[in-house]
């Protein structure tokens, strides 16, 4: 049920995003190394750009996690106000 205040009380699954970024970081680093070793500079550059993008995203995620409940409320904080009937 929508209450109209979802953007204010929305939660972001930061820990899930962090682990997906770790996964992407590992694959991008492996792809960069593999394509560089295979002599494919264009693909290595594309994977390197993706590696940079994932690194920036991971830094933002870690920053938001360290900022605490403002960005990552605990389980005791309800996701929205209950509807008043």
* Overall outline: elongated
Strand composition percent: under 5%
Judged by helices, strands and strand pairing, the structural class is mainly alpha
Profile the largest sheet.
none
- Amino- and carboxy-terminal Cα gap: 13 Å
| SSE ordering | HHH
Instruction: Tell me the radius of gyration.
Output: 19 Å
Count of DSSP strands: 0
Helix content: 55-70%
How many helices? The count is 3
Low-pLDDT segments:
none
Q: What's the average pLDDT?
A: 83
Written description of the protein model:
With 85 residues, the protein is mainly alpha-helical. Helix content is 64%, strand content 0%. It has helices at 6-9, 14-37, 41-66. α2 packs antiparallel against α3. The longest helix is centred in the middle third of the chain and has 26 residues, at 41-66.
Task: For this entry, give a set of tags.
85 residues; mainly alpha; 3 helices
Question: Topology of this protein?
Answer:
Layout: H1 6-9, H2 14-37, H3 41-66
In brief, what are we looking at here?
Helix content is 64%, strand content 0%. It is built from three helices and no strands.
